[in-house]
Amino acid sequence: MDNDFVKKVITFKPGKFVFSYKYDVGKLAPMIVEAKILYQTVKDLPILPSLAAGLEEEIIRRSIFSTAAIEGNPLPEESVAGIVSQPAENTNPERAEKEIQNLKVAYELLMEADLKDPVTALDENHIRQIHSIITNGLAHEHNTPGLYRNHMVKVGDADHGGVYTPPKCLADIETLMREFLGWINSDNIMSLNPILRAGLAHYYLGLIHPFGDGNGRTARLIEALLMKSSGIRYVPIMLSNFYYTNIDEYFRVFSITRRDKEHMVTPFLEFVVKGVIASLYTIKDKIVYFIRQLALRDYYAFLLKGKKLSGRQHDLLTLLLENRRSFRLTDLFTVSMLRVLYKSVSERTARRDLKTLCDLGVLTCKKDIYDLNLQVLGYSN
């Protein structure tokens, strides 16, 4: 029975290497069903093309930050956003900035992948091309963009399940990559849910660790490429955010899966599916909020037209809707965004504005902290 799920490859130096798709069906099947239902819900939500494009840009910026940060890039998210949003004008950037520029190019390639001609059969060129892009121009003693390594590396640390030594020599890496590609494109693996197949590609590329540098970024991009090619939107480029937010568990499940004597890949695949579900909930909430914004803007305009709101009160609500935040009365006079409206207004008038908005139900107040009431039109959080 195991022979149907496990493929053993004999290598020159480390000996036996195992490819497996043995997992706990009882544990993962309900999660896959939840992911399918959630994804269908997200697909059915109406969203304007301009908002969808803006949302995708935001997700890409955050994903580039996250996948780089996992590997130790020190740039804060704000700096990464600036690099991603601007043309690459610096011809001699620092290493951290160059890493982000390279990832921007790699994500552009990923987003341009044509779903009319999807990457169903993964081939070596996809892997080499992505690695070549993300390590282009980055000085590294033992890495050449797009080429496999021929030296020993160590992966991991004691805090995350111990140190792992991947296959050490070029001949073994070439053998394992050839076997990996045949296996990941086999009928058995192709018949799996695309989330599981992409997760397996991610895991085994990490296990083989074929390059001198950039293996994690390459594996996560290949995972995204396979998911996106299966027709999944948003989620493939969001998963790096989940991995970074849960970075300790990310490394831990890799080690647990690697050490499993029965070659069960459940821990890593379960983590990937958790990431898909969490990403779907996040994207659903964002799209629903877009819909709420449109409805609430119309409602605020209706109240203004009916003279239930003053122009200033209407503008305050609009600002809060576009820049979601809680606030106190004093913030109307100290926070620059709000002070524009209230710099010439007395505290008494400001307090009266807030009371009016609370009486109308468009604001809530709890312990002197005000916030938009998103349920005023019957929505729930």
Task: Walk me through what this model shows.
The protein is mainly alpha-helical and 381 residues long. It is 60% helix and 5% strand. It has 16 helices and four strands. It has helices spanning 25-44, 49-70, 77-85, 95-111, 124-134, 170-184, 187-190, 194-208, 215-229, 235-245, 247-259, 266-305, 311-322, 331-334, 336-342, 347-360; strands at 6-10, 16-20, 363-366, 369-372. It is elongated and about 80 Å long. The mean pLDDT is 90.
What's the CATH topology name of the largest domain?
Answer: Fic-like fold
CATH level 1 name of the largest domain: Mainly Alpha
> Mind telling me the C-alpha Rg?
25 Å
Q: CATH superfamily assignment of the largest domain? A: Fido-like domain
Helix content: 55-70%
Flag low-confidence runs: none
Content-based structural category: mainly alpha
Could you state the order of secondary-structure elements as H and E?
Answer: EEHHHHHHHHHHHHHHHHEE
Give the name of the CATH architecture of the largest domain. Orthogonal Bundle
The total strand number stands at 4
Number of helices: 16
- What is the first-to-last residue Cα distance? 47 Å
Give the integer mean of the pLDDT values: 90
Largest sheet composition: 2 strands, antiparallel
Broad shape: elongated
Beta-strand portion reads under 5%
In which order are the strands of the major sheet placed?
1-2
When the domains are counted, the total is: 2
Quaternary class: single chain
How would you summarize the topology of this molecule?
Elements: E1 6-10, E2 16-20, H1 25-44, H2 49-70, H3 77-85, H4 95-111, H5 124-134, H6 170-184, H7 187-190, H8 194-208, H9 215-229, H10 235-245, H11 247-259, H12 266-305, H13 311-322, H14 331-334, H15 336-342, H16 347-360, E3 363-366, E4 369-372
Antiparallel strand pairs: 1-2, 3-4
Helix pairs in contact: 1-12, 2-3, 2-4, 2-10, 5-9, 6-8, 8-9, 8-12, 9-10, 10-11, 10-12, 11-12, 12-13
